[in-house]
Design goal:
This protein is α/β, with parallel strands linked by helices. The chain has helices spanning 5-24, 26-41, 54-59, 88-93, 99-105, 125-136, 148-152, 195-216, 232-242; strands at 46-50, 71-73, 114-118, 140-145, 169-172, 182-184, 187-191. This is UPF0309 protein RGF97_13560.
């Protein structure tokens, strides 16, 4: 079988975007890594949130081999992924005012903690309200979003603002509005979204920057090992015991 022209075009598009965010978001990624390292060093907690497919990048840094054990998923019931039935309900929940406030109030998050909010468009009520309320509580908010949406679409929050307007640090995924990299004759809708690839890369680059900053400060990064390598479970058990008061996915 021969190679797929469109598959190759998608890889090229994704690689181009990855190179773009590597070069153009470098300072912001370093700043986000430093904020996370400071929270770890100061005894604070780490949280990540995303709705719909944006939750994939948030989940990618929680309880995984090679990841920081302290990263917790701040989940909004029904809004995390496509497991809710019908799937369209998840999209509707993103537009509900007051939901983010209720979730934050019932979470362990408090002043000094770090919250990463992932939202490609950054226009819906849920991520905007989440950022506003988190900052009001004294959290450091890192937004991972496509800033282009703020100039090419209208906010769905009552304030008329976007996620990027309520963050201490913004990581711009540079994804074009519509999140589809390819078009082709005979295919009416654009296709092949790259936001998950790029956003997950931004998240992992930020975790790497945090680990680098922790080592610079003389602190061993609390990383998890794979449970599929010898000694992995024992290693993870020690890390989770040492940092148990800041890990909320283990009970």
């Amino acid at each position: 079988m021969g190679e797929s022209k469109l598959a190759g075009q998608f890889f090229d598009a994704a690689i181009g975007l990855l190179q773009k965010v590597r070069d153009e978001d470098a300072a912001e990624v370093a700043a986000a890594g430093t904020a996370i390292a400071e929270a770890v060093a100061n005894g604070n907690r780490l949280f990540a949130f995303g709705a719909g497919h944006s939750s994939l990048a948030a989940q990618d840094v929680v309880y995984r081999a090679g990841g920081l054990a302290l990263m917790n998923l701040l989940a909004v019931p029904g809004a995390v992924g496509v497991d809710v039935m019908p799937a369209t309900l998840g999209s509707a929940l993103e537009r509900v005012d007051g939901l983010a406030c209720a979730v934050l109030d019932s979470s362990p998050a408090s002043a000094g903690d770090v919250l990463i909010i992932v939202s490609l468009s950054g226009r819906n009520a849920l991520p905007v309200e989440m950022a506003m309320n988190a900052r009001a509580l004294g959290l450091t908010v890192i937004g991972v979003t496509s800033v282009a949406y703020a100039t090419e679409t209208k906010s769905r929050h009552v304030s008329g603002t976007f996620l990027k307007d309520h963050c201490d640090i913004v990581l711009d995924s540079r994804i074009a509005v519509g999140d589809a990299e390819l078009t082709h004759e005979g295919i009416e809708a654009p296709f092949a979204p790259a936001s998950t690839v790029v956003t997950s890369a931004l998240m992992q680059a930020t975790m790497a920057a945090a680990a680098e900053e922790l080592v610079r400060r003389g602190i061993e990064p609390p990383l998890l090992r794979s449970g599929n390598v010898d000694g992995g479970h024992e290693w993870n058990g020690r890390v989770m015991t040492e940092y148990g008061d800041r890990i909320f996915f283990r009970h």
